[in-house]
TrEMBL record:
This is Uncharacterized protein LOC111309562. Belongs to the mTERF family. Gene3D superfamilies: Transcription termination factor 3, mitochondrial. Pfam families: mTERF (PF02536). GO terms for biological process: DNA-templated transcription termination. Keywords: Transcription, Transcription regulation, Transcription termination, Transit peptide.
Length: 220
């Protein structure tokens, strides 16, 4: 009977993590081994308590950077993350999947571009997905935005979605089109933020089609 109850609880936990919290089967299986629900009727309350507990984070072998800086600075704001369920799930996924060494490498990458520990933690609260990008991708994007486009590192920190765009397919082609338009005096200025947020059709209609210049099409 005890074995059957254990199996039922384990199956329930996996089902709950996948259906209610959006975990993948692999992640649900891993996390289910680390949590325990006092009751099947209110798993949200029990799971939230588990995630809030620093001991749970330490048991998962998170980096010292995370345990010291994230918990001390971001823990008071964890309730805010919970109000935005999608962000909370992404943050939880990042915490569970990123290794200690990877956290340290990612922190160091952003520090090289002038971000403080507090900047990184604040960014994680706002857009946790950015910590799941590879160090190579982040370095390439930051280098282009800062050294090629002349943007400030703080500007990127406040527009973290920039780090989700593809450099070769989206950013470089669009910036090349705008540089061509600037060089010909067809535009005087533009918003990098809007330029990157436009859909493909919106960008063509705004910056390519009105000028009817085949020269611009080679950049798209």
């Amino acid at each position: 009977m005890a074995d059957r109850n254990c199996r039922n609880e384990h199956s329930f936990k996996i089902s709950y993590l996948m259906n209610s919290l959006g975990f993948t089967p692999q992640s649900a299986l891993s996390v289910s081994k680390k949590i325990h629900f006092e009751t099947f009727q209110q798993p949200d309350t029990d799971f939230t308590h588990c995630v809030d507990n620093p001991v749970f984070l330490e048991y998962k072998n998170f980096s010292e950077i995370l345990s010291r800086n994230f918990l001390s600075i971001a823990a008071p704001n964890l309730a805010v993350l919970k109000e935005y369920r999608a962000n909370f799930l992404v943050a939880l996924q990042a915490l569970l999947q990123i290794s200690k060494s990877a956290w340290e490498r990612k922190f160091n990458v952003f520090k090289q571009w002038g971000w403080s520990d507090e900047d990184i933690v604040s960014a994680f609260e706002k857009y946790p997905r950015f910590m799941m990008f590879s160090e190579h991708k982040v370095t390439a994007l930051m280098n282009f935005f800062i050294n090629t486009m002349g943007l400030k590192s703080s500007y990127i920190a406040n527009r973290l979605v920039f780090l989700s765009y593809r450099l070769e397919r989206r950013i470089i082609p669009r910036c090349s089109v705008l540089r061509a338009l600037l060089s010909k005096g067809l535009i005087e200025k533009f918003s990098v933020n809007l330029m990157l947020m436009y859909t493909e059709n919106e960008f063509l209609q705004r910056f390519v089609n009105p000028y009817g210049d085949p020269f611009l099409l080679k950049f798209i």
